[in-house]
Amino acid sequence: LFPPFRFSLLLLNLEEYYFEQHTAHHILLQGRVPERKIRGSLKICSKSVIFEPDVISQPIIKVYFIKEHNVVAPYKIERGKMEYVFELDVSEKVEDVVETLLQKPVVQITLRDVRRIYKRRHGLMPLGLEVFCTEDDLCSDIYLKFYEPQDRDDLYFYMATYLEHHVAEHSAETYMLQWQRGHLSNYQYLLHLNNLADRSCNDLSQYPVFPWIINDYCSSELDLSDPGTFRDLSKPVGALNQERLERLLTRYQEMPEPKFMYGSHYSSPGYVLFYLVRIAPEHMLCLQNGRFDNADRMFNSIAETWKNCLDGATDFKELIPEFYGDDVSFLVNSLKLDLGKRQGGQMVEDVELPPWAASPEDFLQKSKEALESNYVSEHLHEWIDLIFGYKQKGSDAVGAHNVFHPLTYEGGVNLNSIEDPDEKVAMLTQILEFGQTPKQLFVTPHPRRITPKCKSLSQTSSYNASIADSPDSTLKMFSKESKMLQRSISFSNMVWSGVPAEMPGTKRHQFDLLADLEHDVSVDTISLNAASTLLVSGTKEGTVNIWDLTTATLLHQIPCHSGTVCDTAFSPDSRHVLSAGADGCLSVIDVQTGMRISALTSEEPQRCFIWDGNSVLSGSQSGELLVWDLLGAKVSERIQGHKGAVTCMWMNEQCSSIITGGEDRQIMFWKLQY
User: What are phi and psi of 385, to 5 degrees?
Assistant: First the structure.
């Protein structure tokens, strides 16, 4: 049997990186004479060497002695001058190890192993890139830190371009519309917003933040129909207790600039590990220099924690996604950890639940029901304004009593301007450990969710419904500058269906309207991708729109042509869209980013085209057929075809036969010659 792996990246220091490992022996010396050997793995890192013995009763060695007998416990520290001798199994590797220690080697990841990538912040600066790989090893999920934002952006662009299955994250506005219309649950929407705001479960300093929802942790029954059951979502935690808030505001008024109302944040590594200590004890030990917190300050009770958030002088923390998930592990001491003894004599074990929860599973289930309740659906936008929206900064934040320490905000300090390396590390440590405000996603008030006031009609009964019984109206917002549709908000989530009248001798059918993709002007062309998950449409005013059919939402709106868009199509791999316009242009659009990456021009309108992802054959207003070289951005061949405009084209799957039709009332058959 192989020994269990005990090493993790948590054993590394701030700004330290793991590079490689070698099979080796730790030589125990008696004086200067070898006494015995302990087999294990020698980990080479950028600032240290770590030895992990195969025998779990032996401790891992890296300044601290930890995991002796494979028990997660406070670190054992030996002080004084120590000498360690390690012997590699392959002696020829000694020179390589020494060379590695003297320089910074490269960790290699192949693109085929990368599943998805996200731009992230590091230390409140746009320097991070999160990479998710398929391999289940130490580099399965990694953060890359850059020194310049442009370097990060360049690498993201190149990786996203070559990843076969990479899909760009939707915009906050797109998710907002889905949530408004009921396509996303409150839980799903908050996860998407956290991700867009650079919050990740792989970064304790920017862990996803979720709100306290329930205000009642004392009753034997949880009444979700009573508004008093819920926390006021229009206020930050620090403003929920009026008496405490008045004390904080008095201090705020007397404080010199830069002023802040709260001396601690609502989300920090310490708060996250406060909740997760029972499933991530090693993280807590790493954060607190090898020690657990005082037993009376541990996460002992839901009610106690909520009370302290309301009354505590410096406790303003929110919750984490686990409170609304399915895994109860963080509430139960299943690892049998020795987390200490409280002043009353009782050991710290499982988290004490409120009276209305019969079990940890019941607690999570009722918490989820509370999060998805009508009350929360009607008020969640108020909390979003505080955490991700316009009340996060500026005068609106002051008015909402939502002002935190300047170092928690992006732009609060420029680390690059600090020349002293020790001062820079100290400042970075403070930023990472104190708490970071999420990236601002909205600068205007967030609209509330559309909550139906009457029951939705079933598809079978909608035929008899009148317009008065089922209103269907939409608010459209346009930009004066671009004169383009910016946002479309539906005030009804009814499902409509049409049933044709029965005709003698015919079978009755029912047609269900699955989606209605609204445009601000007439639509002249549409095309589906091969998987029928994406749709591209072209309008009379020259705009190309790319839609996600799985959610019926607009991904990109690109002004490509100065006149009507005559034809559109996806490449076979769905990574690009080609459009032809009455302005004589052919435009190539990147589906992932919505950017026009190429534009080719001709002297006359191009009415239609066919392409295999590489070569393009278009039909012109004059009747000419044009062969385009996309890489060279030019017309490579002209073929005289019809005597009037070419109006339609078809090509077989083998790309060997082509049929064209024109205004000259002719259909022509063509055979490609190679």
Answer: -60, -35
132 vs 235: CA distance, rounded Å: 36
**How does DSSP classify residue 84?**
-
Beta bridge partners of 24: 40, 88
Cβ-based burial of 456 (10 A; exposed 0-12, middle 13-18, buried ≥19): middle
Cis? peptide before 258, omega within 30° of 0: yes
| β-strand pairing of 523-528 with 474-478 | unpaired
What residues have CB less than 8 Å from 134, skipping those under 6 apart? 113, 114, 115, 140
Structure tokens at 23: 């099979």
Q: What is the pLDDT of residues 121-136, one digit of tens each?
A: 888 888 889 888 765 5
Neighbouring residues of 112: CB distance < 8 A, sequence distance ≥ 6? none
Q: At what angle do helices 186-196 and 360-371 cross, to 10 degrees?
A: 80
For the domain made up of 519-671, give the CATH fold.
Methylamine Dehydrogenase; Chain H (2.130.10)
Q: Give the DSSP letter of residue 330.
A: G
pLDDT tens by residue, 592-601 = 878 887 888 8
In this prediction the pTM is 0.61
Q: What's the topology of domain 206-434?
A: Neurobeachin; Chain: A, domain 1 (1.10.1540)
CB proximity list for 414: less than 8 A, separation 6 or greater:
none
Domain parsing of the chain, residue ranges: 9-102, 111-169, 206-434, 519-671
Q: Helices 172-180 & 186-196, crossing angle to 10 degrees?
A: 170
Angle at 68 between CA 62 and CA 70, to 5 degrees: 110
Fold matches, 206-434 and 519-671? no
Fold assignment, 9-102: PH-domain like (2.30.29)
The better pLDDT of the pair 111, 558 is held by: 558
Spatial strand order in the sheet of 596-601: 565-570, 576-581, 585-590, 596-601
> Is the separation of the CB atoms in 669 and 641 below 8 Å?
no
What helix, strand, coil percent values describe the chain, rounded to 5? 25, 25, 50
Which residue pairs, CB below 8 angstroms and at least 24 apart, start in 513-522?
514/552, 515/549, 515/552, 516/552, 517/545, 517/547, 517/552, 517/554, 518/474, 518/476, 518/485, 518/488, 519/485, 519/545, 520/476, 520/478, 520/484, 520/485
